[in-house]
Automatic annotation (TrEMBL):
Residues 228-522 form the Penicillin-binding protein transpeptidase domain. Keywords: Carboxypeptidase, Hydrolase, Membrane, Protease. This is Penicillin-binding protein 2. Residues 56-173 form the Penicillin-binding protein dimerisation domain. The lineage of its organism: Bacteria, Pseudomonadati, Pseudomonadota, Alphaproteobacteria, Sphingomonadales. It comes from Novosphingobium jiangmenense.
């Protein structure tokens, strides 16, 4: 009996051992099958080095001095999940109105109606893309399971709206739009490159000063917009670029509206009398103007066919070229351009890039309104030549104007503008537009305009500013002009004894207010902006104020009398 029990126990033990062995074999075969499946039908797991794992998900953008302008960081988002309680029933414990009011108390800058609309919708959506931990705790305390906090990589702009039109923004899908975020998309996402920050040519100190003063000018004149650019005359580097009103790239909902439109690179304007120095320089360069004391009649409108060219004021019976620039005479500038001829003026304007989109890396670049020719050769009509000479009948961007002024004062070389910081070895050769002697003469004339003419309010002490005002009526219906809508511009360079930077300030439809003595022209609104910007940016851009130095204009001073123009 005892032997039978022992035998049955041995059999049971063997059976159990076989079952365990079979189970182990099954697990082993299953594992081998899965490994074979992964090897044959699925890709190998991604291999990442420690260095790659530490890379930011999107590369950093800095200004020329290393100040961070755009960087990626992990953050919480606020996500609304209408399926939090399944398919049936309300996803919210409280009413949508109560939840919206509670969120508004946490985020005062939010839109209540937009929050309410999203909370009543059956579609999941972001309620907030960037949430601080303390705010996440406050939301969690509301006790709403439908309000979730996914952890995501966010794009952060430490300077807020400063330089927004240069940078652009990144959407919720992680794609760059409008500015350098779009231009640099591949580089910023490339593992081989995104570990090294991209340095732009922008100096955020200059950018802040420019935006601040343009904003002040807008408020003082009740203008609908403003634009400005600061350009290195020798390298083509854009030190600051501002278009107002601006937007905050940290808020993609703001970025999707029309505030992203860039007035500096994408909007073309008739920039009026700021073209006069460019035209006079072309005439001097061609030998048409050799004696600056020669006088031109200026007391009567200049009749060309059925068209009459007029000045804003009667400046007397005659003016010479320096006086014409100081008083901003359309009549005399048109006569000089007529002597120069359409082909020569057209060639100069084309050499300055006025017949093509501005050279800049940004994707939004406006095409100029370039006058049509009257024959197969494309020659301009006589009246077209005259009106273009003082900035009518041709429309360009403020960046076109900045590059043209840089060529006029830097010795005569036009170079394309850039938003990348350039090493001295990377500066392009450019193309010659004016002779060096012509450039030297124009530096004198531009300085005289600020000392004795329409640019007096830009005369920042010690900075030897030179420049030209321009107040152009906006085109209206039926081919005419709207006399109540102006574009006021001041184009300047400093210091004129050795120019380093061009500064353009433009106001779109400024009004005459108490701050401008109820005047709407550039002498009263745009020129003062430059007069305030230059002293703010000069010291940290390497231009120290010096009242003991100036460009020598002693040979021209006897030719002119003091006076006021536009």
């Amino acid at each position: 009996m005892l032997a039978n029990v022992r035998q049955r126990s041995l059999v049971e033990a063997k059976v159990r051992a076989l079952v365990v062995a079979g189970f182990i074999l099954f697990i082993g075969f299953a594992a081998l099958a899965r490994i074979a499946q992964l090897g044959l039908f699925e890709g190998s797991p991604e291999r990442r080095s420690l260095a790659e794992a530490l890379l930011p998900p999107r590369g950093e953008i800095t200004d020329r001095n290393g100040v961070p302008l755009a960087r990626a960081f992990p953050a919480y988002a606020l996500w609304y999940n209408p399926k939090a309680f399944g398919e049936n029933g309300s996803p919210l414990v409280k009413s949508p109105e109560e939840v919206a009011k509670a969120l508004l108390a946490i985020f005062p800058d939010a839109d209540y109606n937009d929050l309410l609309k999203r909370l009543k919708s059956d579609k999941p959506s972001y309620l907030r893309q960037r949430v601080m931990p303390e705010d996440a705790n406050r939301i969690f305390a509301l006790g709403e399971p439908a309000l979730e906090f996914p952890r995501e990589n966010q794009r952060y702009y430490p300077q807020g709206s400063l330089g927004a039109h240069v940078l652009g923004y990144v959407d919720t899908e992680g794609h760059g739009h409008v500015g350098m975020e779009q231009v640099l998309e591949k580089q910023l996402l490339d593992p081989a490159q995104r570990g090294k920050p991209v340095a732009l040519s922008i100096d955020m100190r200059a950018q802040g000063a420019l935006e601040d003063e343009l904003g002040r000018g807008m408020l003082e004149t009740e203008a609908k917009g403003a634009a400005g650019v600061i350009l290195d005359v020798d390298t083509g580097e854009v030190v600051a670029l501002a278009s107002l009103p601006s937007f905050n790239p940290n808020r993609s909902d703001q970025a999707l509206n029309n505030l992203v439109f860039n007035k500096v690179t994408n909007q073309v304007y008739e920039l009026g009398s700021t073209f006069k120095p460019l035209s006079i320089a072309a005439a001097i360069d061609a030998g048409v103007v050799t004696d600056l004391s020669v006088r031109y009649p200026s007391d009567k409108p200049l009749a060309i066919g059925g068209f009459h060219i007029r000045d804003s004021h009667n400046f007397g019976a005659s003016l010479n070229v320096p006086e014409a620039l100081i008083h901003s005479s359309n009549i005399v500038t048109a006569q000089v351009a007529d002597k120069l001829g359409g082909p020569a003026l057209k060639k100069t304007m084309a050499a300055l890039g006025m017949n093509e989109r501005p050279y800049i890396e940004l994707p939004a670049r406006g095409f100029p309104l370039w006058p049509r020719g009257t024959n197969k050769a494309g020659d301009w009509a006589r009246i077209t030549t005259m009106t273009v000479s003082y900035g009518h009948g041709i429309a360009v961007t403020p960046l076109h104007l900045a590059a043209a002024y840089a060529a006029m004062v830097n010795g005569g070389i036009w170079r394309p503008a850039t938003l990348f910081k350039r090493d001295p070895s990377q500066i392009p050769e450019g193309r010659r537009v004016y002779k060096a002697s012509t450039s030297a003469r124009m530096r004198q004339l531009l300085r005289m305009i600020v000392v004795d003419g329409t640019g007096k309010s830009a005369n920042a002490s010690g900075y030897r500013v030179g420049g030209k005002t321009g107040s152009a009526e906006k085109p209206g219906g039926k081919g005419g002009y709207n006399r109540t809508s102006l574009v006021a511009t001041f184009a300047a360079a400093f210091p004129m004894d050795k120019p380093r930077y061009v500064v353009i300030a433009m106001l779109d439809e400024p009004k005459g207010t108490a701050a401008t003595s109820y005047q709407r022209t550039a002498a009263w609104n745009a020129a003062p902006i430059v007069g305030r910007v230059v002293p703010r940016i000069g010291p940290f851009l390497g231009v120290v104020p010096d009242d003991t130095r100036d460009i020598d204009i002693s040979d021209l001073s006897p030719l002119v009398g003091n006076g006021e123009g536009e």
